[in-house]
């Protein structure tokens, strides 16, 4: 009430945010802090030019969201909060450190379908792509933005086909830049999977995207989630085009089939990896020429191994 009574006074908003922040470590205060997100973001929007207030507000929101995720509470940011955050992103897009915090906040918020829908409504996709184009070297920002893109692309009410279509070259560039960084590559692979699911690729995209995903597998063979995401992305590409299947078979850096075999043996106990690999192979055998090649590379033997390993799946 104190903050709402004096929206126009920056010092009141700053003191209010600082006072709310003092309750963060008190577990009993958490349910009340959850109700304060709109007040905090409105203070940030009202005093958009004050970077100090933006930073303190963002830190407090991160603390509240972190606690919510730890407690298993789904915190759905409403449309006015989403709009305020986007306003802040646009105003302070040149401040890389602050932008990194904001993108982390958006990634955490995107765990909620309601929040994702509200971020979509306020039109955040072009802003995410703009940030990635300008700051492809920033690992934290790339990780967060790709995670938000994935959430937006797989959301049920996805009506952003045109905006998402522009995301493919940007996401591919992020993956290329961070191939050796398993955490960022994992996030980029999931975003590419979602874009493939939504059919956001042109004919000329299938081969280079498949080759890039194979590179991600080669660079990060030990990361089970990345292997699963990359294989699901490849399966989506193959479902759309035989070109992608041939790109896997004929990759100049080595047979994609041998890579699949290696990944399976590396993650022998992981049913999620096995399932993703089977899904990929199931899409590949839809093409006669590809199936003949897979037979010659003894894929049936691998499938029998998987069937023995997971007889009840």
Automatic annotation (TrEMBL):
GO terms for molecular function: ATP binding; protein serine/threonine kinase activity. The keyword Transferase applies. Keywords: ATP-binding, Kinase, Nucleotide-binding, Serine/threonine-protein kinase, Transferase. Its EC number is 2.7.11.1. It catalyses: L-seryl-[protein] + ATP = O-phospho-L-seryl-[protein] + ADP + H(+); L-threonyl-[protein] + ATP = O-phospho-L-threonyl-[protein] + ADP + H(+). InterPro entries: ARM-like, ARM-type_fold. This is Serine/threonine kinase-like domain-containing protein STKLD1. It comes from Zosterops hypoxanthus.
């Amino acid at each position: 009430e104190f903050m709402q009574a004096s929206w126009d006074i920056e010092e009141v908003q700053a003191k209010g945010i600082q006072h709310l922040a003092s309750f963060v470590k008190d577990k009993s205060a958490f349910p009340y802090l959850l109700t304060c997100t709109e007040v905090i973001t409105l203070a940030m929007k009202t005093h958009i030019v004050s970077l100090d207030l933006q930073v303190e507000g963002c830190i407090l929101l991160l603390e509240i969201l972190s606690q919510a995720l730890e407690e298993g509470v789904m915190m759905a940011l409403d449309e006015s909060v989403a709009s305020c955050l986007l306003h802040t992103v646009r105003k302070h897009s040149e401040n890389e450190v602050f932008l990194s915090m904001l993108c982390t906040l958006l990634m955490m918020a995107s765990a909620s379908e309601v929040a994702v829908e509200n971020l979509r409504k306020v039109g955040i996709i072009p802003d995410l792509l703009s940030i990635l184009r300008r700051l492809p070297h920033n690992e934290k920002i790339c990780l967060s933005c790709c995670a938000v893109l994935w959430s937006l692309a797989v959301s049920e009410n996805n009506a952003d086909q045109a905006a998402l279509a522009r995301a493919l070259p940007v996401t591919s560039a992020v993956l290329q830049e961070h191939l050796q960084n398993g955490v960022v590559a994992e996030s980029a692979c999931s975003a590419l999977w979602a874009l493939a699911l939504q059919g956001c690729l042109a004919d000329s995209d299938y081969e280079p995207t498949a080759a890039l995903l194979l590179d991600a597998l080669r660079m990060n063979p030990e990361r089970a989630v990345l292997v699963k995401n990359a294989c699901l992305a490849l399966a989506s590409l193959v479902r759309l085009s035989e070109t992608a299947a041939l790109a896997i078979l004929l990759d100049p850096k080595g047979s994609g089939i041998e890579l699949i075999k290696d990944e399976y043996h590396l993650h022998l106990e992981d049913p999620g990896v096995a399932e993703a690999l089977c899904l990929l192979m199931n899409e590949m055998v839809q093409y006669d020429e590809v199936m003949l090649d897979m037979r010659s590379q003894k894929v049936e033997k691998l499938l029998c191994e998987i069937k023995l390993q997971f007889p009840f799946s």
